[in-house]
Design goal:
The chain folds into three domains: 115 residues, Sufe protein. Chain: A; 63 residues, Orthogonal Bundle (Arc Repressor Mutant, subunit A); 75 residues, Fe-S cluster assembly (FSCA) (GMP Synthetase, Chain A, domain 3, 2-Layer Sandwich), CATH 3.30.300. 45% of the residues lie in helices and 18% in strands. The strands form three sheets. A three-stranded antiparallel beta sheet has the order 1-2-3. A three-stranded mixed beta sheet has the order 6-7-8, covered by helices on one side. A two-stranded antiparallel ribbon has the order 4-5. Helix 1 packs across helix 2, helix 2 packs across helix 5 and helix 5 packs across helix 7. It is elongated and about 70 Å long.
């Protein structure tokens, strides 16, 4: 069962702005019923070219409905220039976070908005202009590249969570891996080091993110020096850990805890994290 925030549940059970605007200024359609998710977004501008009204129709899961509802609330009153700066992460943050496996729903919302704005401006983005990487879901290389850059994606699984690409027959996985490697190499050359967006986390989300950060950012470095670390408990903002191997008797263990472990958890999880050692 997905760990949804109360705001996601509210926008799913009580979606805002459902329907379609008559004689809209902008129309955006993304997804398809065959793929399991589809969204149609319409908007109307006022005399100052700000979004006066916006409505949506969607076929999809709770996250798709909640993301679409949230997006419509976010962009009301905005100029098109302001609205087109909204990212999928902004939509997820507005909802207090989405399970990573459901982030493609926020991406779909962002894409529908882009499509609607392009329609208003008389522009037309044709998928044939780009390479279809995932034939199961019709996902292009452009869509994958954009998701990697905007969300700092590193694995095929993450690309699937954010775009659905690779979620079918899996024959496109080698192509997706090649795109990830190329894009991340370009990002490194450009000096781009995206950090995860800070958001209010549930206890389950916080523990999961702590475990992921320990495994990805901390454990490999400690093991390289003959040490290790175990997560013992999480109580609010306090994280209790036990140092293992050489780290357990190293005279610099306090420095390791505060200047390395704690700083990494503050960076990737939450600024209020305090790490305390449990000796056994």
């Amino acid at each position: 069962m997905w760990d949804y925030t109360e705001k996601v549940k509210d926008h799913f059970l009580n979606p805002r702005n459902v329907g379609e605007i008559e004689d809209p200024d902008g129309v955006g359609e993304v997804g398809s019923l065959a793929c399991g998710d589809a969204l149609r977004l319409t908007f109307k501008l006022d005399e100052n070219r700000r979004i006066k009204d916006v409505k949506f129709k969607t076929f999809g899961c709770a996250s798709a409905i909640a993301s679409s509802s949230a997006l419509t609330e976010m962009i009301k009153g905005m100029s098109l220039e302001e609205a087109e700066k909204i990212t999928n992460q902004d939509i997820a943050n507005y909802l207090g976070g989405l399970p990573e496996e459901k982030m493609h729903c926020s991406v779909m919302g962002r894409e529908a908005l882009e499509s609607a704005i392009a329609h208003y401006r008389g522009q037309k983005a044709v998928k044939e202009d780009f390479e279809i990487v995932c034939k199961c879901f019709g996902v292009t290389d452009r869509e994958i590249i954009k998701a990697i850059r905007e969300n700092d994606l590193k694995t095929v699984d993450q690309v699937t969570y954010y775009t659905k690409a690779g979620g079918g027959c899996a024959q496109c996985h080698p192509k997706i891996e090649a795109i990830i490697a190329k894009v991340r190499e370009e990002m490194a050359k450009e000096g781009l080091t995206p950090k995860p967006e800070k958001r209010k986390l549930t206890n389950i989300q916080k523990i999961k993110l702590i475990e992921e950060t320990l495994g990805r950012e901390i454990v490999p470095a400690l093991k390289a020096d003959g040490g290790d670390i175990d997560l013992i408990d999480v109580d609010g903002s306090k994280v209790y850990v036990a140092l293992r191997g050489k780290c357990s008797f190293c005279p610099s263990s306090e420095f390791t805890l505060k200047q390395y472990v704690e700083s990494k958890l503050k960076e990737f999880v939450s600024e209020d994290i305090v790490v305390e050692e449990v000796r056994s």
